[in-house]
Amino acid sequence: MSGFSSFAEFYPYYLREHGNRVCRRLHFIGSSLVIAVAVVALLSGQLRWLWLMPLAGYGCAWIGHYAFEKNRPATFKHPFYSLLGDWVMYGQMLRGKLSF
Fold it and tell me: Which of 4, 16, 45, 64 is 20 to 30 A distant from 22 in Cα terms?
């Protein structure tokens, strides 16, 4: 599917693209690192470290897709919905609604 009219329509596709457990775990690690980098940079006043956020988040996610899921990240075709999907999936994993 290339066109989605809403995030609600996109998200089931997004979850199918993250069926591999290792890929989901790498997404979770990457998102956690993004939060950690942001907190440390803001609390320390060393904002120059914020450049690590996309490296940590996308680095972990893309390793998961290319090495384990064997697909191309949705970020390339659906950047906004994909970013939103990352955080919705992260929240669902934190709450136990989606397995690691």
Answer: 4
